[in-house]
Amino acid sequence: MVVNRGIAVSQILVYTSLSFKQGNFPWRWSSLESLRDLSFTSASDVWSFGIVLWEIATYGGLPYPDITSPFALVSQLATGYRMPRPDQCSEELYELMSSCWKENPLMRPKFSKIASQLKSFLREVKKTYINITEDSNEEV
Description:
Number of strands: 2
Number of helices: 5
């Protein structure tokens, strides 16, 4: 399996002062350890997937819309800030996405567990789905 985490020398420059020049680095989707230490693992990919779930739940909302730099994001995340539950998002789905954002990477779920939970959510949705046809004579 090949994982492309979107990082390349052309996209980020790290200076001796440990500051970096922002290029196409996807900082809004990056885990705390990726932003702080440039550590990229499957656990940091889980964090990013949690951000994607949040985007889906907000119909394409921009993650951390009020945070304007990766430095400000690191500061906020280090104090425990996480994005709030979107209005249209179930408690169960928000629990899943917020579990992806645990500070300790070892405490985040594995992708196999995430897939299992999402399949379970889909089974529950199918149970409550109502099929309404145009030919129905009943008033809706």
